[in-house]
Design brief:
The structure is a single chain. The chain is mainly α. It has nine helices and no strands. The longest helix is centred in the last third of the chain and has 23 residues. The radius of gyration is 16 Å and the shape is globular.
C-alpha cells in the first residue's frame, strides 16, 4: 500500500463524506443502508488502493467504488423503499446543492436509476461526461444519450406539474 496516497485518500473521503453519503442515499433511500454502503466503499478503496493510478484519478475512482457498491447492495437486497419527506429534507439541507423546487425533487426521484444517477453525478456532483462514463463503466455516447433522455423526462414531468 502507498502510505502517502492512503493519507490523501483518507483526506479526500473526509472532505467529501456528505457527498458520498448522499450518492449512496440516492440509490437506497435508507439512512443506515447508505451509511453501510459508504463504509463498505471505504473498506474496498483501502483494500484495493494499489489499483489507483495516482491522485488525479482519485475522485472518479472512488465515485466508481461507491456507485458499484450501491448497485451491488441493491441487487443483494432487491427492495424498494419510500423516502420520508422530513428525512430527505434534512439530508438535502445539509448539502450546498439543494432542491429549490419540491416538484424537481419528486420528478428526480421518479426517474429510473440509470437516469437519476447520471443527473446526480453531472449536476449535483459537477462531474464531466467523461468522468461519469468512467464511474458508471459506460460508453461516453451512452452517458450523453441517457443524460439527454433524463433531462427530457424531467422537462416533461415538470411541465405537467405546472399545468
Amino acid at each position: 500500500m502507498k502510505p502517502n496516497l492512503e493519507g490523501k485518500l483518507i483526506d479526500f473521503i473526509m472532505d467529501n463524506k456528505n457527498r458520498f453519503y448522499l450518492l449512496a442515499y440516492s440509490y437506497t433511500h435508507q439512512e443506515q443502508d447508505a451509511l453501510d454502503i459508504v463504509q463498505e466503499s471505504i473498506r474496498k478503496a483501502l483494500e484495493h488502493l494499489d489499483t489507483l493510478h495516482g491522485e488525479p484519478q482519485m475522485k472518479s475512482w472512488f465515485y466508481q467504488i461507491v456507485v458499484r457498491t450501491s448497485i451491488d447492495f441493491l441487487r443483494k437486497h432487491k427492495r424498494t423503499s419510500v423516502v420520508e419527506d422530513p428525512v430527505l429534507e434534512s439530508l438535502l439541507s445539509q448539502q450546498i446543492d439543494t432542491y429549490a423546487d419540491l416538484d424537481l425533487q419528486v420528478a428526480l426521484h421518479q426517474l429510473p436509476t440509470m437516469y437519476r444517477e447520471i443527473i446526480i453525478l453531472r449536476f449535483f456532483e459537477d462531474m464531466k461526461i467523461e468522468d461519469i462514463a468512467h464511474v458508471l463503466n459506460s460508453n461516453i455516447n451512452t452517458v450523453k444519450a441517457r443524460l439527454y433522455k433524463a433531462l427530457k423526462i424531467l422537462r416533461i414531468e415538470l411541465q405537467d406539474e405546472k399545468e
